[in-house]
Specification:
The complex is a heterodimer of chains A (371) and B (100). Chain A is mostly beta strands. Helices cover 0% and strands 39% of the residues of chain A. Chain A has one domain: YVTN repeat-like/Quinoprotein amine dehydrogenase (Methylamine Dehydrogenase, Chain H), CATH 2.130.10. In chain A, the strands form eight sheets. A four-stranded antiparallel sheet of chain A has the order 3-2-1-30, with no helix packed on it. With 100 residues, chain B is of the alpha+beta class. Chain B contains three helices and five strands, in the order βαβαββαβ. Chain B has a five-stranded mixed sheet with strand order 2-1-5-3-4, with helices on one face. The chains are: A mainly beta (371), B alpha+beta (100). Chains A and B meet through β6 of A and α1 of B.
C-alpha cells in the first residue's frame, strides 16, 4: 500500500514520521542527532531510501548525514564546503563590506534524475554540488561570482541560498533564491546565473526595484507548468509566468502578505498554499489563529483553512522550508511551526491533524511519497 | 611518543562513537596541534568540528583546557603541560559556555 514519510528538521534534532496512504495514524521515529540544529532533511525523488540531513551547531560547525535506508540509520559524509577562490565580501547588515564565511547548509536539493547528485544551498550564500552522494562538494561559483554578490546582504536569519529548484522538464535550468538578494536562474546547469527580480518591490532597500537585494523567502513551482513560479517575499506573494523574467503581485485578499512558506498543490498547478504572518516585526500568525490560506486561482483570491488548526492563543511562525505536499491521489499538505507542531492534511487542506505537538522549533518539513 | 588522555564534548563523542576518554599516541613534543592531528586521524568525522580544516584556526565556541588552565589562546605549536604529556591530566576540548 502506498504511504508517506515526513522528514522534519528541528532546532534540537530530526524526526521521521510515516503513515500509510490514509495519513491518519502516524509512527514517529527520532529524535535523530539529538541537540543539533537540523536545518533540512530531504530525500531523493529517484531513490526514496536515500535521505540527506544538514546537522550543525554554532559550536562544532557543519555535519552532513546520509541515510540509505529511508532514515532508519545514518552515516556522516563530506562536510567540507570550501568557497572557490578568494571569496571576497558581501554587504553586512549596515551596508559595510563583510567577508564571505561558510556557516551551515540551509537546504539540500537532491537531483530529479541521479540519486548520487545533490545540490546544497549554504550560508553565507553559495551553491555547492556533490556528484558522489555527499562525499565531496564543489562550489558552483558562477552564482556568487556573477557580478552582484558584493551587493547581497543578510536577512535576519543570515545570508543563505535557501531555495533550489530544478526544472523537471529541463535539467539545465535551475532556480535559487537567496535572502536577501533575490531569485537567480541558470540555463546552463548552474555554470552562469542571472538575477530574476524584475517586478519585485521591497521597501527595505534603498532602490525598491533594484536588480538584487530583495528578501525572497521562498519560491515554488509546479512540475506541469515549469514556466510559472510562485513566491513568498518578505512582504508580498508574487507569481511569474515567464520563468522569472517578470513578476506580478498576487497577494490579493490575504489578511497580511508577509510570510515565509509557499507551496503548490501536487495535481492542481493553480492551487497554492501560504501561511500569512502578522508582519516583519511580529513573526507569528495573525490574531492568535493558525490559518493556512489556499488559492485555487493561482493567487489573488484566497480562502482560510482552519479545520483542525488552533484558532485561539496560537503565536507561532511557519518557516520557509517548513511546508510540503505529497503526491498521493488526494494531495496531502504538511507544515511545521516554531511551536513544535507538525500538521498534516490528507485532503488538500480542507482538514488538519497534528502529527506531533511538542517538538522543538520546527525548521523544515519535507515529505516523500512512497510506492 | 606519549599517550595523551583527551576528553571531548558529548556531541563529538556521539559523532566519533566513543564513550569516556580518548587515548592517543602523540609524538613528542606534545602540542595542541599534534593532539588534534592525532584525534582527527583516529576520528575523521571530527575534521572541521574543532578547528578550521584549511587554516587550523580554533572554532570560536571551542576551548582547550588542561591542568585548570585555559590553553585556548596559546599557540597551537606550544608544548602542553608536563602533566598532560605524562598522562596524569587529560586535555579537554570544551564547547564554550553559551547556552543552548
Amino acid at each position: 500500500m502506498s504511504g508517506v514519510r515526513v522528514l522534519v528538521g528541528t532546532s534540537k534534532g530530526a524526526f521521521v514520521m510515516s503513515a500509510d496512504g490514509t495519513r491518519r495514524d502516524w509512527r514517529i521515529d527520532g529524535p535523530f542527532f539529538e541537540g543539533w540544529e537540523i536545518y533540512h532533511v530531504k530525500g531523493s525523488p529517484v531513490d526514496t531510501n536515500r535521505v540527506y540531513a544538514s546537522q550543525s551547531t554554532g559550536w562544532f560547525g557543519q555535519i552532513v548525514q546520509r541515510s540509505d535506508d529511508g532514515g532508519k540509520t545514518w552515516d556522516t559524509v563530506g562536510n567540507q564546503f570550501a568557497y572557490d577562490g578568494v571569496p571576497g565580501t558581501h554587504q553586512w547588515y549596515d551596508g559595510t563590506p563583510h567577508p564571505w564565511e561558510f556557516a551551515r547548509v540551509w537546504h539540500f536539493e537532491p537531483s530529479l534524475s541521479d540519486p548520487d547528485a545533490v545540490l546544497a544551498g549554504v550560508e553565507d550564500a553559495a551553491l555547492f554540488r556533490s556528484s558522489d552522494a555527499g562525499a565531496s562538494w564543489a562550489e558552483l561559483s558562477g552564482l556568487r561570482n556573477g557580478g552582484t554578490g558584493s551587493r547581497w546582504q543578510p536577512g535576519a536569519g543570515g545570508m543563505a541560498v535557501h531555495t533550489i529548484i530544478e526544472d523537471p522538464t529541463n535539467p539545465k535550468r535551475l532556480y535559487v533564491a537567496i535572502s536577501a538578494a533575490g531569485v537567480f536562474r541558470s540555463d546552463d546547469g548552474g555554470v552562469t546565473w542571472t538575477p530574476k527580480n524584475r517586478g519585485l518591490a521591497s521597501g527595505e532597500i534603498p532602490d525598491e526595484d533594484a536588480e538584487v537585494g530583495h528578501c525572497v523567502h521562498r519560491i515554488a513551482l509546479h512540475p506541469s507548468a515549469p514556466e510559472t513560479l510562485f513566491m513568498q517575499k518578505h512582504w508580498d506573494v508574487m507569481r511569474s509566468d515567464d520563468a522569472g523574467d517578470s513578476w506580478r503581485e498576487v497577494s490579493g485578499d490575504l489578511p497580511t502578505d508577509f510570510g515565509f512558506a509557499i507551496d503548490v498543490h501536487a495535481h492542481e498547478p493553480e492551487t497554492l498554499y501560504v501561511v500569512p504572518i502578522t508582519s516583519d516585526s511580529v513573526h507569528y500568525v495573525l490574531d492568535g489563529k493558525l490559518r493556512v490560506y489556499r488559492s485555487r486561482t493561482g493567487g489573488g483570491e484566497w480562502e482560510p483553512l482552519t479545520k483542525g488548526l488552533p484558532q485561539e492563543h496560537c503565536y507561532v511562525n511557519v518557516l520557509r522550508d517548513a511546508m510540503a505536499v505529497d503526491r498521493l491521489e488526494e494531495c496531502g499538505v504538511y507544515f511545521g511551526t516554531t511551536g513544535g507542531q507538525v500538521f498534516a492534511s490528507p485532503d488538500g487542506g480542507d482538514s488538519w491533524q497534528a502529527i506531533a505537538s511538542n517538538l522543538p522549533r520546527v525548521l523544515s518539513v519535507e515529505v516523500q511519497t512512497l510506492a | 611518543m606519549s599517550e595523551i588522555r583527551v576528553v571531548i564534548p558529548t556531541h563529538l563523542k556521539t559523532l566519533a562513537q566513543v564513550t569516556g576518554e580518548v587515548r592517543l599516541e602523540v609524538a613528542d613534543p606534545v602540542t595542541t596541534e599534534r593532539v588534534l592531528d592525532a584525534l582527527e586521524a583516529r576520528y575523521p568525522v571530527l575534521v572541521g568540528t574543532i578547528r578550521n580544516p584549511e587554516t587550523g584556526a580554533r572554532r570560536a565556541f571551542v576551548r582547550f583546557f588542561a591542568c585548570e588552565e585555559d590553553l585556548s589562546h596559546d599557540p597551537p605549536e606550544h608544548p602542553l603541560p608536563e602533566a598532560v604529556v605524562r598522562g596524569v591530566e587529560p586535555f579537554f576540548v570544551i564547547g564554550a559556555m553559551a547556552g543552548g
